[in-house]
Design goal:
Number of helices: 2
Structural class: mainly beta
Order of helices and strands: EEEEEEEEEEHH
Strand content: 35-45%
Oligomer: single chain
Largest sheet: 4 strands, antiparallel
């Protein structure tokens, strides 16, 4: 039995016992992970997913975490500018051994789903935490109580009071 699985933006045809180098998958050496994005399952009967096969999975054991070979990018610009740049990159990789190809019952297997290095799991939607409603503030309650009381009359300005005294 074989399967075509998708991980790290690439597709791989795998069978039980295969050793595979893929982009980084979260986990330590010896851990078992499960890939749930299965595009096709083959064997006695071929099942093609639309876009994935429901209930199918590929289980694998992580053999090692590491880095791939160094890729060097050299850029030299046009004449008379003498501008050049060298840039290197080493991709994080995971070496896997495929242990099992499941055509059905992937949900009941109890094995954790594989997560790529960025923490994104395809097909899983995380619920965003609901925004908390602001608690009722005590000063607002005091303000409402103050509005309920009748307002005291304001004292007359001093100049007006002095004029009234002069008129009498």
């Amino acid at each position: 039995m074989f399967a075509v699985m998708k991980t790290g933006g690439k597709q791989y045809k795998v069978a039980s016992g295969d050793i595979l180098r893929v982009e980084k998958v979260t986990g330590n050496a010896g851990d078992t992970v499960q890939f749930n994005e299965i595009l096709m399952v083959g064997g006695d009967s071929v099942v093609i997913g639309v876009p994935t096969v429901a209930g199918a999975a590929v289980q694998a054991e992580i053999l090692e975490q590491g880095k791939g070979p160094k890729l060097i990018n050299y850029v030299k610009r046009r004449r008379k500018h003498s501008s050049q740049r060298t840039k290197g990159h080493r991709q994080q990789i995971t070496v896997l051994r495929i242990t099992d190809v499941l055509a059905k019952g992937a949900e009941k297997s109890g094995v954790a789903a594989a997560e790529n290095g960025s923490g994104f799991v395809p097909g899983v939607v995380e619920a965003k935490p609901a925004a908390k409603a602001p608690a009722a503030k005590k000063p607002a309650a005091k303000k409402a109580a103050a509005e309920a009381k009748p307002k005291a009359k304001k004292a007359a300005p001093k100049k007006a009071a002095a004029k009234k005294a002069e008129d009498k």
